[in-house]
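Problem 12. The chain below contains 256 residues. Write out its predicted structure in token notation.
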Amino acid sequence: MIKLEKLDHIAILTVSRPEALNALNSATLAELKETAEKVSADEDIRVLVITGEGKAFVAGADIAEMKDLDEQGGRAFGLAGQAAFAAIEGLPIPVIAAVNGFALGGGCELALCADVRIASEKAKFGQPETGLGITPGFGGTQRLPRVIGLSKAMELILTARMIKADEALALGLVDRVVAPECLMDEAMKLASAIAANAPVAVRNSKAAIRRFTGASLEKDLEAEAGLFGACFATEDQKMAMEAFVNKSEKAPFTGK
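Solution.
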């Protein structure tokens, strides 16, 4: 249900349950978490692109599985989704969501775990859970406000309203909207541009940005300085700066 392919230093993860619009059941969540762990362990992968097979990115969690759960079962299912998504969000490499269609409920929550989101003009987003008698359970109540702000997240979640790609762009939920036929090309161009840079510098930049708390600038700057300094222990930094100073051609980055 989860396909993974590698093209040079880029991995493409595809959620593949097209007959169910890629809805996330327990088995898919377990496989998603396992795949994220494989990506994390592969030092050759510098960027991950996530998309869905067919006309949906991920249409949500699997309602057929959820409908008969009791309170304990519901909590366990929510924790399974949170664990899978934490494995995605916690990857040290950049993650790009290429949202090709419906990204509802768990699909919107999965997209929120990415560092950059590119959407097809046909993409649709929403957290429809309150219309089904539940709350978002895979992180939507926490990640959506962090991305689009508290009041806008409150409106979308409480109304269970579905929005189109242009409104998602206006809200800051996605970073770019492109024609459907250009989606993967644009995602791969972005991934290639990132993968061409120094891997340690890219990972450290992501770590610095992701640790932003908004509570203590002093502590966040201290962490940035440590990550900045760590780059000076790499061969890539020595090579790139030497080439810059000498106005010579820069060799490909090796990640060392």
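Discussion. The mean pLDDT is 96. Students who got a different answer should revisit the alignment rule from Section 12.3.
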